[in-house]
Structures are given as structure tokens and as C-alpha cells.
Amino acid sequence: MKDVIVITGAGVVSAIGCGKADTLAALREGRTGVGPVRYLETSLKDYPVGEIALSNTEMAALSGAPATWPRTTLMSILAIQEALKEAGLETPDQVGGDDRGSVMPGSDRASRILVSGTTVGAMDLTEKIYPDYSSDHSCGACTDLAALFVDGFDDATTLSTACSSAANAIIYGANLLRTGQCKCVVAGGSESLSNYHLNGFHSLMILDQQPCRPFDANRAGLNLGEGAAYLVLETLEGALQRGAKPLAILSGFGNACDAFHQTASSENGEGAYLAMTQALKRAGLQPADIDYVNAHGTGTPNNDASESTALRRVFGDNLPPVSSTKPYTGHTTSASGSIEAVFCLLALQHGFLPAELNWSTPDPACIVPVRPPIRSGVTPLRHILTNAFGFGGNDSSLILSAYE
After folding, report:
1. Contacts of 121 (CB under 8 A, 6+ apart)
2. Are residues 52 and 14 in contact, defined by beta-carbon separation less than 8 angstroms?
3. How far apart are the first and last CA of the chain?
4. 163 is catalytic
5. Would residue 296 show up in a list of annotated catalytic residues for this protein?
6. What is the pLDDT of residues 131-140, one digit of tens each?
7. Nearest to 174 by CA among 186, 159, 165, 160
8. What residue ranges define each of the domains in the chain, with the CATH number in brackets?
9. Using CA atoms, how far apart are residues 346 and 27, in angstroms rounded to an integer?
10. Given 18, 139, 142, 163, which residue is catalytic?
11. pTM
12. Catalytic: which of 182, 184, 197, 331?
């Protein structure tokens, strides 16, 4: 049981809702959160985004954090608070530690560690005062603020591997637990929209002025989004010892880097293929065991064709249902791996497949995604694979399995 990693809590905030209840309703109803820019001051008003429907002041009021803090941190705090509450870990001593910053007596293991993935960090604040600034707006500073505000963390660390950051944070957290370096990890990611962010993707000419259409023959690019999500990870042994109820098992994960190009995916999807096959091997599963794949599916011509090739290499002619949930939230970049992991957790718990939005025209180069929503309770799911692929070919896959 020491090597079995379970999820005991989850929290999420994105364009389709603040919290898991709102998120579940939107996924069931096929309701998108992508729309016109509301809060970000940008010249690119013609490009739809997946913006959280809360101002910084409103998020601060919900969490109790200062409204002057970075938007990335404010989103982190909301998601972390929800995850810890569900796990029954709202106070520091509930995983065996004493006070904040302490470790178990007679042990060098930390009680609780925060691992967060982000790339943009506090760029929203930097843009307001550049070039005359002296504050620390780095990615790590955003994580440290969240760990400082949410009491009970012994340590915090930040991963930044572009769009696979949050997935890699979950993998890193699982390895911390597997090697006995801590008792509990809160792992995920957070990313806010910024001009640096939006203008950068615009310069790559991969933004769509219409709602994104992953795997569609007429797809023209992605819509950027923002959000945060975190999973509470523990060993099965540790969770049962404290009387926690596991929600699911993190049964497999894999990471590979094909280093094909700074931003483009390889034609044969080598990195994606390796990440998925590593995850299957670690989980002890065969491709036929996977009931649903939450694809990276950004809506760019290159990504969707490459990922489709990798999926066909892994699954052959027996492709399970596949969909991309980015038409719901936009591409939340560094946070996407954990946000979509929470979507998969909800799908496992409630027995439904998130439908593909905006798809209409098949592309021979791409897989055909799941379109009609499948009602809750009629689709028993045991194993779900979710993909998060980053620039530079840093590709990660996670497998969530039902806890039985």
C-alpha cells in the first residue's frame, strides 16, 4: 500500500466555475466558459478567452487573501482550500505534523508539501509597473505566497515546463510520496492570463478568433484560458491510517521529451507516444483497459494531428472514447494538466464522458472525438488517461483509476 498513490481531495477554478460543483454541472451540460475578454487589459479583444468570471477583489473575498496579490496566487489559494477541505486536511495536524513548518517527531519526512506548476507567474502585476519594479513576481514567488497563506505546508516548490507543468507537479508529488519524503502532497498548477501570455501566442499565429475546434478539419488554433487545480495525494496506507476516503488512484504516469522543436509537435508524436506508454506500463494496464482519454487537444493544426498519430500508435484500431475539454475552458497552459485531471476525476466519480464541443467536420489526419454528452450514471469508468504536452516536446500523461 506504500506504493499506491491515492487522491483524497481536489479543488478547481476555471472559466466554467469556481469549485467542483459548478465545474461538474458545466461539463454535464456541455457549457463553455470561453467568451470575450472581460478583465485583462489587452489590445487583442477580438480573440476569445477562457477567463474566470471573478475579479481579483472577488477572489480575494472568497479566500481571505489580499486582493493585491497576483491573480495566479489568488486562483491557487481557492483551489488548494477546496482540495484540503475535501481531504479533511484543513488544519496542519491532520496529517500527523504538529505546527506549520514542523516534521514528524524522529523523522526527516515533511508532513505536507505544496508542488505547483506555473510559467506566467505574477506577470499580470509586472505588466502594470514595468520597467520600474522591485517586487518578486517570479513563478516561485506565486507558489510561496500560496503556501504562506494556506497554513500547514512544510515546504513548497515550483515546476515550470510550459503546458505540462501541472501534470509534472503531480508526477513529482507522487514520487515524493513513493520515496517516503513526505506524508502528503498538494500538487497541481495555476496560470492567469496576461498580455505577455496572449501576445506571445499571438506572435506564434496559433490563436483562433473563433471558439477552438480540436480535431476538426477546420480548426484554426487555440483559445487561451486561465485557472488552477490541485490534488491532495497520499499513499493508500497513510490515507487509510487517518481514516480518509480515497477518491481515486493515481495508477500511472509518464513523462518524455522528444526535443523535436521549440514549439511544434513531431509528426509521429514520439514524445506523446512515449509518455502514454510509460503511464500504461507503470499502471500495469493494457491499452484496451483505458475507458476514456482526455486529450491535450489544443485546436492547433499541428498539435491535433500529432496527438492523433500518437493515439493511433498506442491504441491501434481499438481507440477508446477521446475528447478535449479545452473548448470548455480555453487552454489553461501550465495549469491544464491538473485542471483536466480534476475533470477526469469527476468523470470517474459520476460516470460520464465530457463531450467534445464545436467539432463538426472529420479530418483524416485526426481522431474522431466524443460528441454527444453521455448521461451520468450510465457509463461505468475504471481507467482514464489524460495528456498534457508542453513546448519543447515535454510531454506527460497521467492515469486515474477508480478506487475499489
Report:
1. 70, 72, 137, 138, 139, 140, 141, 142
2. yes
3. 14
4. yes
5. yes
6. 544 455 577 8
7. 186
8. 5-241 (3.40.47.10), 248-402 (3.40.47.10)
9. 9
10. 163
11. 0.91
12. 331
